[in-house]
Structure formats: C-alpha cells, structure tokens
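step: validate -> pass
step: tokenize input -> pass
step: predict -> running
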Amino acid sequence: AWLELLDRATADADASHISVNREAQHKYLTWRTEK
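step: predict -> pass
step: emit ->
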C-alpha cells in the first residue's frame, strides 16, 4: 500500500510538472510569434 501511494504521488508530481512545462512552452511560443 505504501509503495502504491508513492507511485501515485510521483505520478501526480509528473503530471503537474508536465502541465507546467506545457504552459511555459505555450507562453514562449506565443511570445515568439508576437515578436
């Protein structure tokens, strides 16, 4: 059960990290096209 909790926590962290990366990439792309 403990390992399962750890796996779920790391999966959630990965998901939030990916969404943050995607948001940053989107901001960069929109900024680049505006220039």
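step: describe -> The mean pLDDT is 88.
step: cleanup -> pass
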